[in-house]
């Protein structure tokens, strides 16, 4: 992720990674640039290694962390475009969203989750015609830390060990919340705001894409199913939530071309999920999986967790 010197994700890595590993992790997970010239050079290097997208950290994490400057942000986006690669922005506030949009990013990652977007700003953001990957499941997961037992979903019970799932029910008494405490409090206070933001942006015509990220309490696959339910809570119909994870996401990834995936149609890629029930009426049906077909091949499904 491209970021300012000391910007996100550097403080988080310094807090979470053991001291003997930080020197290795930070340069590989964060590209810290402070001038347009350094930004362009770094983009060339990363694209030269085969990257097909550039992610920029525009958000403050924590709130006092440095934030990438506008001219550096613009240089990253411009150089990526020159090299035929799109740039996306990790945002958290309205200011982040506007700065990223004006720089020309292809998508907002995580959406505005730290505050409620003013009603008059909704059409301003919608006018950029930039899709937003809401990832509300990430912030919901953080908001619920320390708030009591976290009931696992059926898919989580199938795909994760029982002791791992149970570990999220209670925070160890010895855990030091001095770093993450303020962030978790903010997440709890903003639970209604990010749902409301997604609803109003969607109503204004912003394409909402489904994504789950990889965070505490967010399990691959099962986390995406949680996200679809949260999108429905945010005002999308079940069919619209499913489309956010299929056709709309496929069209974004195809970057202007007609995708050969993300839709059930003759001649398209045969990647199919067969479920028991009608998920356009009941999203719970998505977890009642009867068969998975990958490239026309029916896969064998076996639970690897402890139901």
Would you identify the CATH architecture? Alpha-Beta Barrel
- Any low-confidence stretches, pLDDT <50, length ≥5? none
How many strands, which pairing sense, and closed or not: the largest β-sheet?
Answer: 5 strands, parallel
Q: Oligomer, anyone?
A: single chain
Superfamily (CATH H level) name: Metal-dependent hydrolases
Fraction of residues in helices? 40-55%
Secondary structure tally: strands: 10
Strand residues, percent: 5-15%
| End-to-end C-alpha gap | 37 Å
What is the CATH class designation?
Alpha Beta
| CATH level-3 fold name | TIM Barrel
* Secondary-structure element string: EHHEHEHEHEHEHHHHHEHHHEEE
Number of helices: 14
Q: What is the average of the pLDDT values?
A: 94
The largest sheet has its strands arranged as 3-4-5-6-7
**Number of domain modules:** 1
**Class from helix and strand fractions:** alpha/beta
Structure notes:
This protein is of the alpha/beta class. It has a single domain, classed as Alpha-Beta Barrel (TIM Barrel), CATH 3.20.20.140. It is built from 14 helices and ten strands. The strands form three sheets. Strands 3-4-5-6-7 form a five-stranded parallel β-sheet. Strands 8-9-10 form a three-stranded antiparallel β-sheet, with no helix packed on it. Helix 5 links the parallel strand 4 (86-90) and strand 5. Helix 3 packs parallel to helix 4 and helix 7 (136-143) crosses helix 10 (181-189). The longest helix is centred in the first third of the chain and has 13 residues, at 36-48.
